[in-house]
Amino acid sequence: MVLKINSDYNRFKEIVRGHIKKELRKYMSTTEIIQKKGDNVVSIPMPYIELPRFKYGDQDEGGVGQGEGDVGTSIGKKGEEGSESEGGRAGNLPGEHAQETEVTIHELAQILGEELALPKIEPKGKKNIESEKDRYTSIHKVGPESLRHFKRTFKEALKRQIVSGYYDYNDPVIIPIKEDKRFRSWKQKKVPESNALIIYMMDVSGSMGDEQKEIVRIEAFWINTWLKSQYRGLEAKYIVHDAVAREVDEETFFRTKESGGTIISSAYKLCVSIIENEYSPDNWNIYPFHFSDGDNWSGDDTSACIEILKKKLIPYSNIFSYGQVESQYGSGQFIKDLEASFSDEEKMTLSKIENKEDIYRSIKDFLKKGK
Asked: 248, 295, 250: which is closest to 274 by C-alpha?
């Protein structure tokens, strides 16, 4: 019975996994999953799954092939009780229902990686970031019963009985006493691990509306999902900017109202300051993501941005990613300037996002390099 339950559960997981992969593009263009996410799980809406079974009709309705009608006659009548007629009369039959299935963030990241063919990230900076792990590497004569080493205890009791002459070869009964007991003991070992920092920067000037911010929010969710599967420790910082930049929390990042002009260099300068003051590029895997509609105040400020990118942000980063969100008010010039200045730069990733359907492709643009 247990084996059957496990088999059914594994089969159900495969069905869920297949459904998510099939509908991944749809899930990546909506905030439905994001709104229902917990710390480690998300709820996926799925059609109700019912195991197939035979359903028998009433005996007084006749058997197969009996009753009135000719070959090819449709079964059932329009407007009969329980269905909806052409006039729109309410019926009493159930419709199709959906259920919500919980999936862990790790499982979702695996599906994302498989569907987008994302390479595993090769992290840097493991040597100076350490975590402590308990390793059971030794045996002691004292300790809690929960850590008693039964094999060692038995051997000590056997040796004692043989040496003392109490061991009976014809009736070998081994009874450990207090002095025979042995217990596992641990030592703390420092293990290097890789940590990552994501810095999200978003233009919140007057041309960036709710639709553009929703696209950024969806992209941030899927970027976080993938990077969490690649790093033990993942931290996120949020910067909003118009003519000036400021660091905010996640909720403020997505709820800040649009206003003012755009000076992109203000965000890049603040990003550099956060990295230099709080996160050493030698020890942290750093991923800045900047989202804008491509408008900037002046060509001089764009030149300042390019200078900061070349001298600071790109050398500090594993990958620097710029996503340009389509806006009817934005000129879209900034991505053209970046393309002209960084056409051969491996650590620069650019992506144009015209609508929510482009999010799927954009995520692949950002993460496909595996750095």
From this structure: 248
**Which burial class, exposed, middle or buried, applies to 275 when counting CB atoms under 10 A from its CB (0-12, 13-18, 19+)?**
buried
Residues 25-29: contacts with CB under 8 Å, at least 24 apart: 25/357, 25/360, 28/218, 28/222, 28/359, 28/360, 28/363, 29/218, 29/356, 29/357, 29/359, 29/360
So where are the chain's domains? Answer: 1-49+99-115, 130-190, 195-367
Element (H, E) at 110: helix 105-115
- The phi, psi pair for 353, rounded to 5°, reads -125, 100
- Taking CA atoms, 209 is separated from 213, 326, 328, in Å, by 6, 10, 10
Q: Structure tokens of 153? A: 């205890």
CB 287 within 8 A of CB 319: yes
Record: fold of 195-367: Rossmann fold (3.40.50)
Tokens describing residue 200: 């999200």
pLDDT per residue as tens, the chain (371 positions): 445 555 665 676 677 777 777 878 887 887 777 766 666 777 777 665 555 556 666 655 555 555 566 666 665 544 444 444 444 555 555 554 556 777 888 888 888 888 888 887 777 655 444 555 556 677 888 888 888 888 888 888 888 888 888 888 788 888 888 888 888 887 665 544 668 899 999 999 887 888 888 899 899 889 988 888 888 778 999 999 999 999 999 889 888 887 788 999 999 999 999 999 999 998 899 999 999 999 898 999 999 999 999 999 999 999 999 999 988 777 789 999 999 999 999 999 999 999 999 999 999 999 887 77
CB 237 within 8 A of CB 199: yes
Please report, for the chain, how many H helices and E strands are present, in that order.
12, 10
